[in-house]
Every structure is written in structure tokens, then in C-alpha cells.
Fold:
Amino acid sequence: YEVQPGLQSYAVRMRPKTEGPHPGLIVQHGYMGTPEMACGLVASANAQDYAYRSMGLRAVRRGYCVIAPHHPSGYGSSSDAVDVPLPAFPDRDVHYGKNRLHRLCVLAGGTLLGLDMLASSRAVDILLQDEKVDAARIGCYGLSRGGQTALFLPALDRRIRASVCSAYFNERLPKLIGPYSRTNYIDWFAEGQILPAQAALFADADIASLIAPRAFAVEAGLGDGAVDQQAARRECQRARVHYEKLALASRIEFIDHAEGHVAATRRAFDFLQEQL
Structure:
């Protein structure tokens, strides 16, 4: 599909076999991932520690019309890993493609995150063209950098009524520059996480305030190597204040689990079902 004139991406779509109308769900993959990985259409989808836990397949079995848009990394395939360098740059590592895209976006006055959000918002357009989809019941569920989408996209696109941000939500300034108990972005290889003015202007709770009064959940694992669960809990409590002031505390939830950088899925899907 066309993201904007001259720029294309793709998405995986899945629909229940039953008649609609059904709620719709954006399923968003993470860094260097693919829609096939997030939907469970790869060989390792049933492995015990598999990060995405077949989010797309689980959703469609629960009665959702699913669309999983691709956020380009460079070049890759539908295999378990996107590990192919850019053809013109064979000596560069696999991360170069995404960093190069981000640099091009910065030169054009934007960021790769902004372009990715446009790609996901256009996927909502496609979802709403489906006669089986109930336009009043659109959700989003993303893991890791897909969790970043689950935070930013509903803040930008009011058609999304409920969102689950998995393995991303954080106390942003420590995550960006440290000190932090997990990897901080200033020392990481992905340039696209360094956003102009974010540290000065928008904590994660501030972005969540742009989602309210629509529903929002944070999912965080105790053993996550990228997100400190207690930091995520503290930031979620700051976001909760906005919902409490609106007397809508039931529309925000912190979902904790004992695993690592994975989507635990069960309570997340229950939350989406309750809110949609």
C-alpha cells in the first residue's frame, strides 16, 4: 500500500471466518521485526521464549480483524530474523539500513518514527475500508519498538480507541541518557530513538495524556533486558493521574508479568476486549 506518494510499505491482514462486524486491531512489530514475525507466521512462532507470541494469530482467533503494517528496516525476508545488509552497502552491519532511513528523514525535516507513524495510520485507513470492521472499535497492540507505536500512534490518531504498549513504556530521560539499569539509547546503535526535544518536552506519561480519555495499558516484564519494570510502573502511575482526574481510572492499567522482553498477551487481550 502507498504510505505517501512514491513511498510504499506492506502489511499482513487476517480476518475471522465469521460474519462481522468485528473489532479491528493494529499489530505492530518491533525493531528489525516483520509483520510475519508479529503475526506468528514464522518457524519459531511457538517457541516458549518467542517475543511476539503470535500476537496476530491470537487476535484473529479472538475475533479481531488484524492488520500488521511493516516499518522498514532496510532489506529482509519473512524468516525469523531480518539480517540482510543493504545491497549497495555489503560491508555495513544489518542496522545500517534503518539508520540510513532515519538520516534521510532528518534531512527532510522529520524522523523515521514520524514516517513509521504515518505508515501505521495509513494501515488504519485500510482496516476501516473493510466492511467486516466496526469503526468504533479499533485497537493497537505493539511490542518493543512496536510498543513505541502503541504509545505514539493513538496519541496522534484518535480513531484508535484502546492501545497496549508492551516492553517500551519507561521513565524516558534515564532510558535515553542514563543512568539506567538497562541499556540506554545514547549508547545504543539505533539512531532513530534520539528524537529532537523529546527529553525536554515529553515524558512517556505526557504522551499518554494525549491518549486519554481513550483506553491505554502498559505491559512490562520483570526479566526484560530493555525496560525496568519498576520504572515503567512509576511512569504509568504518573499517566494514571490524567485518567483519575477524568474519573476514568478503569481505562488505564499496568500489566506486569515475570517474563522478559515478550508480549505476555493474555491480560492484554482481556483488557482490549473489555475496552472495545
About this structure: The mean pLDDT is 92.
